[in-house]
Design a protein that fits this description.
Number of strands: 14
Largest sheet: 6 strands, mixed
Structural class: alpha/beta
Strand content: 5-15%
Shape: elongated
Helix content: 55-70%
Number of helices: 19
């Protein structure tokens, strides 16, 4: 049995939907060829059954030849066995084709999403990704898998037409003219079906995106009383999707009716002509039975042809959406320059804002506008193109992996993933042993393996103080220290299984403040050279905020930490404070010194009054 997914999904040809389908077909050529071959053998064996039955009637029953009857009866049995065996093998090959195309496309969607990174939510709606990864990949697989049945149907029609022409050229001509006529009528319905399916697909993606947004922001909507407004919008959008679905169903109903009516008409014509020939003595009774069998048999391959056309239409629509996604490019191309040898902690400088983050210090940035904080964090983390430098090296000259390893930006839009809490909090800084638990020895390299700092002086709600010492990055001891630094001890102790408890999807089993503290634990466990936090204490009370500020400062002592915040508690704990207005650093110093600046004081005072 073939295993999926393949280790190497290849490089897709996404120039057009057709080229992508052909590329998938080329990668699945062995399974496609086998499926087509078995499909042809299956339908040919099925097509020869009426001929064998007719021979049995004419040479066995009517001629009273027992030997001929047994011979042709045995031929019918053999054809039945061949048909069943080939059908099983055809379906197996079709399943391999379907799974191969679906998994390969899913791999490329996941890789493209990772390659786009932070640009993904700005370029593609959430619902679009969900539909592509769930619906579209299945339709692509179905489109390719249908080739096995479609090719067999074409050969079956050709074989039956040849037999009919050999027996009666008039009946053969009826079949040869009738089949293209039916295909032409069906093709008239395929084009409007294609357009309406495309429109339905776009509206479904928009509706899915709105549903995702509503679910993710439900707590906020309830807080501001906006549930009814968004519910009304969702109802209106869902009605538009329903109308588009009805429009598709109308065409599909006509197509399904044509699948039954047109083959039925052809069968009626063939049987009527055959009966006329028998009545005039131009054809035997066995031949009439065979012709009737052929006419009935033709219904199935003709229906399969129309089904294949419908599946290919759906596959083409899905391929159009997927190729549009795969053709997206990141906001800036990654550098091909090899990174310079590591020279130790270095200042992080943004010339555009005149902001410099000194190495090894706890720096806080107070922004007059929250938008400035997001903009600066994106530039400093290289999520947008900028002239930011780390030491003497522009971030533009560093590979993305190197930047992500040395600089971590954590904000309140980050998600908690489902799974064991211990593994979720370890993040990339884990050093797990064979049993999944972190080795106490920790990791070497640039991570801090020795103790730093001492013990917090404040007691956490759970009863333990905010002990802050990082021992072995990724170890269980380091995780405990990070939990205490983020004052998340009460969260862990309230769980039935503590750190081994399970996190539900998006961390929905935790409140907003709890999620914020757990995300902070995860960021601290990563232990990057530069840690950038955006409003890490906005969802906690002032008492907890003070303990977190103290704990993070102790835990990150000697490491570069930058916090965007307007909280007086955090600003007072920082080694250095920078005030930003209009995306420019306009003042800097200690919190106490900056309080003399009316602009800075107004931002901090607003925070205190709120």
């Amino acid at each position: 049995m073939r295993r999926f997914p393949d280790p190497d999904p290849g490089n897709p040809d996404h120039r057009s939907p057709t080229s992508y389908l052909l590329w998938l077909a080329a990668y699945q050529r062995n399974a496609l060829f086998a499926g087509a071959l078995y499909g042809i053998v299956h339908v040919v064996a099925q097509a020869l059954v009426p001929a064998a039955v007719g021979k049995a009637i004419d040479t066995g029953i009517i001629a009273r030849d027992q030997r001929a009857l047994l011979l042709w009866g045995g031929a019918v049995v053999v054809l039945g066995v061949v048909q069943a065996t080939a059908g099983i093998l055809r379906d197996r090959a079709a399943l391999t084709t379907r799974l191969g195309a679906s998994y390969r496309t899913a791999q490329h969607i996941a890789r493209q999403a990772a390659r786009l990174g932070a640009a993904l939510p700005k370029r593609v709606a959430k619902g679009e990704i969900v539909n592509a990864g769930v619906v579209d990949i299945g339709r692509l697989g179905d489109a390719l898998a249908e080739t096995a049945r479609g090719s067999g149907a074409l050969v079956a029609i050709a074989v039956v037409a040849a037999i009919l022409l050999h027996t009666s050229w008039q009946l053969g001509l009826v079949v040869l003219l009738g089949v293209p006529l039916m295909v032409g009528v069906v093709s008239l319905l395929i084009r409007p079906l294609h357009r309406r399916q495309q429109r339905l697909r776009e509206q479904q993606a928009e509706l899915t995106g709105r549903a995702v947004d509503i679910v993710s922001g439900l707590r906020v909507l309830r807080g501001i009383g906006g549930e009814e407004v968004f519910a009304d919008r969702y109802r209106a959008d869902s009605q538009r999707v329903r109308a588009a679905g009805v429009a598709v169903a109308r065409v599909e109903a006509l197509l399904d009716g044509a699948k039954v009516l047109l083959p039925g008409l052809l069968t009626t014509v063939v049987v009527w002509l055959g009966a006329h020939y028998v009545a005039t003595g131009r054809m035997g009774a066995g031949q009439l039975v065979a012709f009737y069998g052929y006419a009935v048999f033709l219904v199935d391959p003709l229906r399969r042809l129309t089904n294949a056309a419908g599946r290919l239409t759906q596959g083409h629509v899905a391929a159009r959406r997927i190729t549009a996604f795969l053709a997206l490019r990141p906001e800036f191309a990654p550098s091909a320059v090899a990174p310079a040898p590591y020279q130790g902690p270095a200042p992080l400088t943004d010339p555009a804002s005149a902001l410099t983050v000194a190495p090894g210090r706890f720096t806080a940035v107070a922004c007059a506008s929250p938008a400035d904080a997001a903009t600066l964090a994106a530039r400093l983390g290289r999520y947008t193109d900028s002239a930011v430098t780390l030491g003497d090296t522009p971030l533009a000259d560093l590979p993305p992996d190197e930047i992500r390893r040395r600089i971590l930006v954590a904000d309140n839009a980050d998600r908690l993933f489902a799974g064991p809490l211990r593994e979720e909090l370890r993040g990339r800084g884990s050093d797990a042993g064979p049993d999944g638990r972190a080795n106490d020895a920790g990791r070497g390299g640039r991570g801090r393996d020795a103790e730093v700092g001492g013990r917090g002086r404040d007691a956490a709600p759970g009863g333990r103080g905010c002990d802050v010492a990082l021992v072995g990055r990724g170890s269980d001891a380091a995780l405990e220290r990070a939990v205490d630094a983020a004052c998340a001890r009460d969260i862990v102790e309230a769980l039935p299984d503590g750190l081994d408890d399970l996190v539900e999807e998006s961390g929905r089993n935790f409140s907003g403040g709890q999620q914020q503290r757990l995300r902070l634990v995860r960021a601290l466990m990563a232990d990057p050279e530069v840690l950038i936090l955006i409003e890490p204490t906005s969802a906690v009370d002032a008492h907890t905020e003070a303990r977190i500020a103290h704990g993070v400062g102790e835990l990150r002592a000697g490491r570069t930490t930058l916090v965007f915040t307007t909280s007086p508690v955090v600003l007072d704990r920082a080694d250095h404070v920078v005030y930003v207005q209009g995306a420019k650093a306009v003042a800097q110093g200690s919190h106490g010194d900056l309080l003399t600046d009316v602009r800075y004081r107004s931002v901090v005072a607003r925070e205190e009054t709120e």
